[in-house]
Amino acid sequence: MEGKDLSAFDALGRLKEGNKIYINAAHGVGDISPERRLYTSKNGQKPYAVIVSCSDS
């Protein structure tokens, strides 16, 4: 689905599914290695959603 436009409904569904996975995870499985961070800094990110919230709530 990467690189394609998502409807608001589909984006919300992906966010909800990702949140379920996050809540039920026993440990982190993401790659945060220096190599991955360097790749990301050079190639950027392509988020499909942005969450805006109050920082002092």
Indicate the proportion of strand residues.
under 5%
Secondary-structure class: mainly alpha
Helix tally equals 2
Helix content: 40-55%
**Uncertain stretches of 5 or more adjacent residues:** none
Q: What does the average pLDDT come to?
A: 84
Write down how many β-strands occur, each being a DSSP E stretch of 2 or more residues: 0
- Main beta-sheet annotation: none
Can you give a write-up of this model?
By secondary structure, the chain is an all-alpha fold. Helices cover 47% and strands 0% of the residues. It contains two helices and no strands. The chain has helices at residues 8-24, 34-43.
Short description, anyone?
The chain has 57 residues and is mainly alpha-helical.
Helix/strand layout:
Layout: H1 8-24, H2 34-43
Structure characteristics:
57 residues; mainly alpha; 47% helix; 2 helices
